[in-house]
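User: Here's a chain of 97 residues. Predict its fold as C-alpha cells.
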Amino acid sequence: MDFLAEGATTPPMAETVALKCLAFLAGTPEALGRFLAISGASAETIRDRADDPGFLSAVLDFVLSDDDLLTEFCSAESLSARSIHLAAMELDGAACG
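Assistant: Prediction complete.
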C-alpha cells in the first residue's frame, strides 16, 4: 500500500521512505556513485547524516531527478512518484525548521 499517497505525510513516514531510498541507492552502485559525485558526500557522510532531514531530502531529490531511477525505486517499494515528492517536501520543511 502506498501509505503516503493515501493521507497526510508525517516526518517519520517521510524519513522511512528516504531511508529506504538510501538503501536502494546503496544497492545500486552506479546510482550511488553518481549521488556521491553530485552531492560531494562520502560513505562516512552517509553514516553521519542518515538522520538529518536535509540530507534525506537531498537523497530523495536525487532520485526524483532521474526518471528511470525513480521508476525503479517506486516499483521496488510499491510507492508512487507522488509519494516520493510528498516525502521530499516533508523532509525539506523539517530541515528548514
